[in-house]
Amino acid sequence: MKALSQKRRHPIAGLALLLLGLLITGGLYSVASTMNQAQASNTGSSYSAEDITEGEKLFNANCATCHGVEAVGTENGPTLVGVGAASVNFQVGTGRMPMQMQGPQAQAKPNQFSDEQTAQLAAYVASLGAGPAIPEEQYLDTDHEDVDLGNGGTLFRVNCAMCHNAAAAGGALTRGKYAPPLAGVSEQHIYEAMITGPQNMPVFSDANIKPEDKRDIIAFLKQIESQGSPGGAALGSLGPVSEGLLVWTGGLAVLIGFMVWLTSRSS
């Protein structure tokens, strides 16, 4: 036993363990890279070679300045390898990319590309690495017989309302950033935002929120959007705070005006 213990403590044993650890780590990384390439190949196979080629041309002409050739990233923009087609379709489809100017976050604006060009850009980026794909139509159908508005409202309030407001009217965040209002946003772009996590938004994968639950959330948002503001002026949809402030300010103004009127009459 003593001899065995001495052998275990031999200086070469530490080096051997280090080499073994490096070998295992390298092997795992190689397997993971191979699997990612295979997934990317499968993802890209859903797009035609022509779409990928045209998308690459569009990317090199409009995006490579910031994101680098082959989308590997630069100091002015992150790598897009592995972000998936859904991320491209959201960012480009909402006009956030290309950015108009540098700022705390990309702002939505009119789309600079046609739907066909957006799809081609998405096809090219999807071919570079596995990532979230364009959502299936069945999960965008808010009139589906299995839609549960109550479940969608609950999930929205638990996961989204702290940033986007309980009425989905948006809200301010830190360092000049903000959660945008969700009225007028298409079902597809809402779904894509949930699975890609743009800006400060977290990613809600299918493990966090199932596709059917995402559909319920979208249906809830479209429901409250269609209702408008039945109570009158929305006042930012901030609830009793803005309403109370308006009443207090308005009431105070009336009292001051009344006092001025009384004073002027007495003089």
Automatic annotation (TrEMBL):
<keyword id="KW-0479">Metal-binding</keyword>
<keyword id="KW-0472">Membrane</keyword>
<keyword id="KW-1278">Translocase</keyword>
<keyword id="KW-0349">Heme</keyword>
<protein>
    <recommendedName>
        <fullName>Cytochrome bc1 complex cytochrome c subunit</fullName>
        <ecNumber>7.1.1.8</ecNumber>
    </recommendedName>
</protein>
<feature type="domain" description="Cytochrome c">
    <location>
        <begin position="50"/>
        <end position="129"/>
    </location>
</feature>
<keyword id="KW-1133">Transmembrane helix</keyword>
<keyword id="KW-0813">Transport</keyword>
<dbReference type="InterPro" id="IPR036909">
    <property type="entry name" value="Cyt_c-like_dom_sf"/>
</dbReference>
<keyword id="KW-0812">Transmembrane</keyword>
<keyword id="KW-0677">Repeat</keyword>
<dbReference type="InterPro" id="IPR009152">
    <property type="entry name" value="bc1_cytC-su"/>
</dbReference>
<dbReference type="Pfam" id="PF13442">
    <property type="entry name" value="Cytochrome_CBB3"/>
</dbReference>
<dbReference type="InterPro" id="IPR050597">
    <property type="entry name" value="Cytochrome_c_Oxidase_Subunit"/>
</dbReference>
<comment type="subunit">
    <text>The cytochrome bc1 complex is composed of a cytochrome b (QcrB), the Rieske iron-sulfur protein (QcrA) and a diheme cytochrome c (QcrC) subunit.</text>
</comment>
<feature type="transmembrane region" description="Helical">
    <location>
        <begin position="245"/>
        <end position="263"/>
    </location>
</feature>
<keyword id="KW-0408">Iron</keyword>
<dbReference type="InterPro" id="IPR009056">
    <property type="entry name" value="Cyt_c-like_dom"/>
</dbReference>
<keyword id="KW-0249">Electron transport</keyword>
<keyword id="KW-0679">Respiratory chain</keyword>
<feature type="domain" description="Cytochrome c">
    <location>
        <begin position="147"/>
        <end position="225"/>
    </location>
</feature>
<keyword id="KW-1003">Cell membrane</keyword>
